[in-house]
Amino acid sequence: MRKKTGRYSGYIRPFSYVLDLIIINILANFLLPETLNLIGYHFFISISWLIIAWNIGFYEVYRYTKVIEIFSNILKQYLFFLLINFAFIGFYLKFSEPSKMIEFVSFSLILVSLAKFFIYFSLRRFRVVFGGNFRRVVIVGNGKSVTQLGDFFNENPDYGYKLEKVFTLTPNKKEQIDECFDFVLENKIDEIYCSLSDLSNSDVNKFIDFTDNNLKILKFLPDNKEILARNLIFDYYDYIPIISLRNIPLDEVANKIIKRIFDIVFSLVIIIGILSWLIPILAILIRLESKGSVFFKQKRNGLNYKEFYCYKFRSMRLNEIADLYQVSKNDPRITRVGKFIRKTSIDELPQFFNVLLGDMSVVGPRPHMVSHTEMYARRIDKFMVRHFIKPGITGLAQTKGFRGEVESDKDIIYRVKFDIFYLENWSLLLDIKIIFLTVINAIKGEEKAY
């Protein structure tokens, strides 16, 4: 499974945040009186700017976003930022030059807007001239909207979509749908657009299962603005309505930043507060009982199926089948020290280094060894959906009792079920609740912790 490429929003948006904050802080320094040029005020305008931006979607600019929507968000940002600055000086300071504040906010929004539109139109030009930052797509269906969407993709290369093929459907749809699936896999297609008017419920389920299991994006094209009975995202490409199948909160930049900050802070607390003194102690105990490294590393599959090395304290004697077979109850490979650290989940603590490096999150779907991931991907429906977000040290499934050895398909099916619920309903409070339950379970002891 390849890593997704050609999508730069993950780099551009953080760059935009930093650039905009630099602009407003420099202008505040030059345009406002010295009474306001204090560290506290600069901190205030930076935080307030970001809070306003996240709430109005100021940075939520996509390849299909209309220019008028960008202008609308700029106006909202201007008004709210101006209002909150006047509220600040009105509450804390006797400020007799309101024109200076209007001048500062106005120049800030002008420069920020120029930078924003420069990036927006530069990306469009880049897609046309160099053919980069594009997504390969196919369309399935026969309706009028299919033709319109195909024309839109072909006539607007600056949006960054490359239409590879349109699959028209005849009464014998099964063969064409199978042909579409083969084409998508062979040609590394990123997104599938389906006309709902040409698909039955069973056909829709086929596309959902296929895209879930192969990490493809599925979007529906409603001819009459049909709305399905579930929480879907409704967008417009020009004037053409598009429905996105799955809403993943962690796809939003603000949520990614919040979760990443939490991961970094939490992992640093554990590394400095616990691992700094625990590693030397365990190093001695582990090496006294058996030869080998203090740490054990194993390849796991993470975000977008990318492989990474997952770290643990070594709890077994050196053996050649560690990457092939899971630990079972009363496994002879486990050492005495290993039995204790596995029972208390202490063996998992080095994964906080994985969190700090960005390969994992504190909370998320538990990663499996590569050989097992490939096996479950073939056997268990929707197993691959778990790889839409970063894996975690602990997860919702683990707090519900589905941790450790997979003894039957039921264990992995329910694990996938809880993982999908987590990625579709993520919140910081849910992460905190999962961490709390994990600690409680570790103290109480779990039946499958061996």
From TrEMBL:
InterPro entries recorded: Bact_transf, EPS_sugar_tfrase, Undecaprenyl-P_gluc_Ptfrase
- Which residues lie in coiled coils? none
The record's subcellular location field reads:
Membrane
- Quick one: where is this thing mainly located? membrane
Q: Which UniProt keywords apply?
A: Membrane, Transferase, Transmembrane, Transmembrane helix
Q: How does it sit in the membrane?
A: Multi-pass membrane protein
What broad class of enzyme is this? transferase
Cellular component GO terms, alphabetical: membrane
Please give one Gene Ontology molecular function term for this protein.
undecaprenyl-phosphate glucose phosphotransferase activity
Q: Domain named Bacterial sugar transferase: which ranges?
A: 259-443
Instruction: Kindly indicate whether the keyword Transferase belongs to this entry.
Output: yes
The membrane-spanning stretches of this chain are: 12-32, 38-57, 78-95, 101-123, 264-286
Classify the source by domain of life: Bacteria
The answer to whether keyword Transmembrane applies is yes
| Enzyme Commission number, as recorded | 2.7.8.31
Q: Which NCBIfam families match?
A: EPS_sugtrans, WcaJ_sugtrans
Give the UniProt family note. Belongs to the bacterial sugar transferase family.
Q: What is this protein called?
A: Undecaprenyl-phosphate glucose phosphotransferase
What lineage does the source organism belong to?
Bacteria, Pseudomonadati, Bacteroidota, Flavobacteriia, Flavobacteriales
